[in-house]
Design goal:
Layout: H1 4-20, E1 32-42, E2 57-58, E3 61-71, E4 76-90, E5 97-111, E6 118-133, E7 137-141, E8 145-149, E9 153-166, E10 171-182, E11 193-205
Antiparallel strand pairs: 1-3, 1-11, 2-4, 3-4, 4-5, 5-6, 6-9, 7-8, 9-10, 10-11
């Protein structure tokens, strides 16, 4: 039967054994990562004018995509992201119009605690956004008259925070939240958009 002293001794030996195990660096210089993600994108006003008495808005919807990262050092990395959001423009005369938004980003990533299994990070970068409307937006603008507005492309800026948790030395789970600025998604009466994205992903490091 184990006594109180025996239990204390076992606990002390266990703690020493755990401390003696070398920590594997989870993010290392020269490593590469690929990630697949899915999440939610939160929209903003699409135009700076009212169309038919209402301001069109980019709807909140599902976003998904792929990311590739290369770590130059344990802390610093560069990440390329290709994202897709199949959303809609709401608040239009008549029915909503589907809008597919494709984004391509180049981000600098800084990892905190790169030697642990839990690795928080911050990132920021620039990119390109391409919008594809299902049909042009048609309506009346005060002081202008009837208008027809089509989709357009522009630059995007994003910045965010997140964390990777390494389930194994190669496989990680990832949570990410970022602010995204979109220059425009339509070709007339355009308004810059301030949007947000929250995503969950799974990654593989090699």
């Amino acid at each position: 039967m184990l006594t109180k002293k025996s239990l204390l001794g076992v606990a002390a030996l266990s703690a020493l054994a755990l401390n003696a195990v070398p920590a594997m660096a989870q993010v290392t210089a020269g490593s590469q990562e690929v990630h697949a993600y899915v999440g939610e994108a939160f929209g903003d006003d699409v135009t700076d004018r009212r169309i038919g008495g209402r301001t069109p808005e980019l709807d909140d919807d599902v976003t998904y995509g792929l990311r590739y990262g290369y770590n130059f050092t344990d802390a610093w990395g560069l990440e390329l992201s290709l994202g897709q959001t199949n959303t809609a423009v709401t608040g239009l005369p008549g029915r909503d119009t589907d809008l597919d938004l494709t984004t391509f980003d180049v981000d600098a990533v800084y990892h905190f605690n790169p030697g642990g299994r839990f690795v928080p990070y911050v990132l920021a970068g620039l990119g390109y956004a391409s919008a594809d409307l299902d049909r042009p937006i048609a309506g009346t603008v005060s002081g202008v008259g009837p208008v027809r507005i089509d989709d357009d492309n522009g630059f995007t800026v994003n910045a965010g925070v997140g964390a990777k948790y390494f389930v194994t030395d190669s496989v990680s789970l990832r949570l990410d939240a970022r602010y995204r600025y979109l220059d425009k998604v339509v070709d007339r009466f355009d308004d810059s958009l301030n949007t947000f994205e929250t995503t969950f992903g799974i990654g593989y490091q090699f």
